[in-house]
């Protein structure tokens, strides 16, 4: 029997992927600069000394400039590395951008691997998303890695998803295992939700 929520999610993800694929390069470059500025301000406002983030793909809102600048400023940045068991290992980012293709073809760091609990030490989590709604519910890309990580943390720090401005929606389909985020970062703004989690 087909799960109606799963069907809705698949359709929405396909639509959002298509939209992202059609963005011109100039718009991607401008978005990357905007995201970098917004993330810099967020890190400063949280007072974060250690953050987790992700290496953006060519169609995602760009995080690479932010990552390089953060590492050079002395911020400890953990990057996710996917595992076959559905958990995430972590590697400390360096400013030389040594990346390789990970389990699902996504860019991942090549440094020394830390176990899943390494993320418990960060002050701020920055996660990818397909979309986020006004209540802080995040639609991921369907593999559940970040939902599982956020849901298993005893003391979860603030979690912010990164999306394009058009990907803040009125509502996204949700399952019981889906974890909301505390805020969303776009190329033009950062929104903190009132009481999404905890």
Automatic annotation (TrEMBL):
<keyword id="KW-0067">ATP-binding</keyword>
<keyword id="KW-0547">Nucleotide-binding</keyword>
<dbReference type="InterPro" id="IPR024185">
    <property type="entry name" value="FTHF_cligase-like_sf"/>
</dbReference>
<dbReference type="Pfam" id="PF01812">
    <property type="entry name" value="5-FTHF_cyc-lig"/>
</dbReference>
<keyword id="KW-0460">Magnesium</keyword>
<feature type="binding site">
    <location>
        <position position="55"/>
    </location>
    <ligand>
        <name>substrate</name>
    </ligand>
</feature>
<keyword id="KW-0436">Ligase</keyword>
<feature type="binding site">
    <location>
        <begin position="9"/>
        <end position="13"/>
    </location>
    <ligand>
        <name>ATP</name>
    </ligand>
</feature>
<dbReference type="InterPro" id="IPR037171">
    <property type="entry name" value="NagB/RpiA_transferase-like"/>
</dbReference>
<dbReference type="GO" id="GO:0005524">
    <property type="term" value="F:ATP binding"/>
</dbReference>
<dbReference type="InterPro" id="IPR002698">
    <property type="entry name" value="FTHF_cligase"/>
</dbReference>
<dbReference type="GO" id="GO:0030272">
    <property type="term" value="F:5-formyltetrahydrofolate cyclo-ligase activity"/>
</dbReference>
<protein>
    <recommendedName>
        <fullName>5-formyltetrahydrofolate cyclo-ligase</fullName>
        <ecNumber>6.3.3.2</ecNumber>
    </recommendedName>
</protein>
<dbReference type="GO" id="GO:0046872">
    <property type="term" value="F:metal ion binding"/>
</dbReference>
<keyword id="KW-0479">Metal-binding</keyword>
<dbReference type="GO" id="GO:0009396">
    <property type="term" value="P:folic acid-containing compound biosynthetic process"/>
</dbReference>
<feature type="binding site">
    <location>
        <position position="60"/>
    </location>
    <ligand>
        <name>substrate</name>
    </ligand>
</feature>
<comment type="similarity">
    <text>Belongs to the 5-formyltetrahydrofolate cyclo-ligase family.</text>
</comment>
<dbReference type="GO" id="GO:0035999">
    <property type="term" value="P:tetrahydrofolate interconversion"/>
</dbReference>
């Amino acid at each position: 029997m087909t799960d109606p929520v799963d069907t809705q999610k698949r359709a929405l993800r396909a639509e959002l992927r298509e939209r992202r694929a059609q963005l011109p390069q100039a718009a991607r470059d401008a978005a990357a600069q905007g995201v970098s500025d917004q993330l810099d301000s967020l890190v400063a406002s949280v007072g974060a000394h250690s953050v987790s983030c992700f290496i953006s793909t060519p169609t995602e809102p760009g995080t690479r400039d932010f990552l390089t600048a953060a590492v050079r400023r002395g911020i400890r940045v953990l990057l996710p590395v996917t595992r076959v068991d559905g958990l995430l290992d972590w590697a400390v980012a360096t400013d030389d951008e040594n990346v390789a293709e990970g389990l699902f073809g996504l860019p991942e760091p090549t440094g020394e691997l830390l176990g899943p609990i390494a993320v418990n030490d960060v002050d701020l989590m920055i996660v990818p998303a397909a979309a986020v709604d006004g209540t802080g519910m995040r639609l991921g890309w369907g593999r559940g890695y970040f939902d599982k990580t956020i849901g298993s943390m005893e003391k979860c720090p603030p979690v912010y998803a990164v999306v394009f401005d058009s990907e803040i929606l009125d509502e996204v389909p949700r399952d019981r295992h889906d974890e909301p985020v505390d805020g969303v970062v776009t190329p033009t703004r950062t929104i903190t939700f009132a009481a999404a989690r905890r």
